[in-house]
Each structure stands twice: as C-alpha cells, then as structure tokens.
Amino acid sequence: MQLDLAEIEEIAKLLYIRALKLLPDDVKEGFVRLQRTETDPTGRSLLATMVENIAVAERDDNLLCQDTGIPIYNITIGRGVSFDGAALKAAIRRGCERATREHPLRSSVVHPITRRNEHTSCGIRVPVLHIDFDDRPETVEIEMIPKGSGSENGSFLRMLVPADGVAAVKRFVIDRVIEAGGKVCPPTIVGVGIGGTSDLCMHLAKIAATRPLGSVCADPEGAALESELSRAVNMLGIGPQGLGGDSTAFAVHVETAATHITMNPVAVNIQCHSARRARATITPGGVTFGF
Hints:
The chain has eight helices and nine strands.
C-alpha cells in the first residue's frame, strides 16, 4: 500500500479538529462513574458542570477547551506500507497548519525564547511526531493528541535510587499529584512511566496518560501498581478542579520499560479532565475515524 500524502494531510487536519471538539466515549463513561461515587456536594456540582460543558461543546460544534495545546501525532505503520518519511512529516505539518488557519483555531505554539507565535500551531520540532511499527498488514494508524499547558505543566521526572524500591515510586507519584493539586484541571488521568532512560521514561508517562480509560498495563507488575495508585490518589481529597471531593482522577495508568541496574527513573505526566484524542485507521479499504 502506497500512502497518499494528500490524504494524510487532510487526515492530520481533521484529526486535530475532531480531537478538540469530540471527547472519547471512555472519558464520558469515566465521568458517569465518578458521578456515581462522588460524595462531596461541591464535587458533584462541578462534575455536573463539566458534563454539561462537554454536551454544549458537541451540540454547538465548539471546542471542549480553549487551549488547543501542543499538537502530537502518534503514527503506527504496519507491514507492506510504502512511504517517503520526509514527505509524510511535511504532509502532517501542512494538515496541522490548515486546521489552525481554516477552522480557525487559537494557536498555542510559540518560539521558546522570543515567544513569537506563527499562528499555525507549528514551530521548531512541532507538531511532535512519534513513529512506530507493528505487524498489521497494509495498515497505518494516526493518533492525534492536543496536549494543553494545564496538563503538560503537570510533568515531573525523578531518577530514583533502586534500593529505595517501589515504595519510593509510590511516594513520588502521590507527592506530585498533591503538588499539582487543582492546576491540572482534575479529575485527571495520571500517567506514570517507570524505567528506561530519562527521556524514554517521560515518553512512557505520556503514553500512559493518554491511554483509554479501562485499559490495563501489559506488564502485570505495572497493572497491580496502577490499581493501587488509582485508589490512593482518590483518597487525597483534591477533587474536581482542586476544590475538594473524591474524584481527583479517573485513573492512574502505568507504563514500564527495562532500565539500568544502577538507576530507576520514574516520571509523571498528567492529563486533564478534557482528555482529548482522535484516531484514524488507513487501510486499502479506506479511512475510519475513532478515538
């Protein structure tokens, strides 16, 4: 299968817009679960307001949040797919620019030193692209995640001492959730990366933070840890928007990687309650959109 770059450009554009306007079903279901268990009156009121905001945005074809974020595209290439890597990268950037200009969207991307905004949601090394490969025949999957500053500012990394064990990992995660408080617009999805190198660990935390609710870490040790941390985080009393309650997080998700014998990196990346993402799957039969 030869990738059609004009089609890729259009998909990149549509995914950005869809991600900003349509909340995934698993996140909506997450709100329903939290509403059933929230005991704090203020927390219940805030959850109801958030649910209404989602409904209004979708009914009026409007944005879920004014922060259009840093655009991230995760691309997974299957077997038997032919493409020009540089041309693919350029097509996705054009689609991202078109979404911003044609919709139009507020561009949240600026130069890190001059703070100049090109009003394209693009800049040096942005949009962020991650490319991976799997064994699905003639299949390309593109996931778009707009990562806003509220959640992205809830990012933390610590190079732990292996002798401190898993207790140090738990303590670091809980302390960072407390530190972030209401600044990350809870209820959140708390992504935790454990292992690898410093950069891989932070990438794992972001993968964890943007995983669908209800998914489970493939590593049994990671799965057990995310279950324990999910319970612990919702005992902190931070609650929706940090104003108190049981609903601090939809879940804590963990991703792991092998690491060096003398270190144990742990990273936290928090996703806000507007946990936006959109996905397109390309096969010889056409394009399907989802979350």
